[in-house]
Specification:
single chain, 164 residues, alpha+beta, Muramoyl-pentapeptide Carboxypeptidase, domain 2, six-stranded mixed sheet, two-stranded antiparallel sheet, globular
Length: 164
């Protein structure tokens, strides 16, 4: 299959991340879905890697992408929206590789240093970070997501007060 990118290749400008990390999906494999981006989605994946993931890696060390690009079918199987930002390639969900870096510290640094559309603190404090980057449309929103899939728009001060 021609994926449009060599999956083992590092993403230009984000040398610590491969294309394959962004499309790997156990859900897709289990259900026989091909989790393949088109050219525009690949470009969005590259922007996320360069503008979000590589700077976080440079500051905090290794991160593990738990979910990057997803087709609408994969999103639906996961209980997410078929129009999730994952389906456009804008988003990566990630966690600290070694678990030693506190998620709140990463989000605080991202808030202070990066351009982004939305950061979601999902299922904290043990959960993960959802971070989207949309070229020309970065709203700098910060949300908390609870186990019932409720979202609250919060400030960085509120997040630090709760988890800092």
């Amino acid at each position: 299959m021609n994926w449009g990118r060599e999956l083992k290749r590092a993403i230009p400008g984000a040398q610590n991340f491969t294309y394959g990390e962004y499309v790997k999906s156990d859900t897709a494999l289990r259900h026989g879905f091909v989790n393949k981006p088109n050219e525009i989605q690949w470009q969005n994946v590259e922007r996320n890697a360069v503008n979000i993931m590589q700077p976080v890696r440079d500051e905090f060390g290794a991160q593990r992408i738990t979910s990057g690009f997803r087709t609408p079918d994969v999103c639906e199987k996961l209980g997410s929206s078929r129009k999730s930002t994952h389906t456009f390639g804008y988003t990566a969900d990630f966690e600290s590789w070694d678990g030693r870096t506190r998620l709140v510290d990463m989000v605080e640094w991202m808030w202070d240093n990066l351009e982004f559309d939305t950061i979601i603190a999902e299922y904290w404090p043990e959960g993960w970070i959802h971070a989207s980057y949309i070229e020309g449309y970065n709203r700098r929103r910060l949300k908390l997501k609870d186990p019932d899939h409720n979202f609250d728009l919060v400030t960085i001060k509120h997040l630090i007060r709760i988890y800092g």
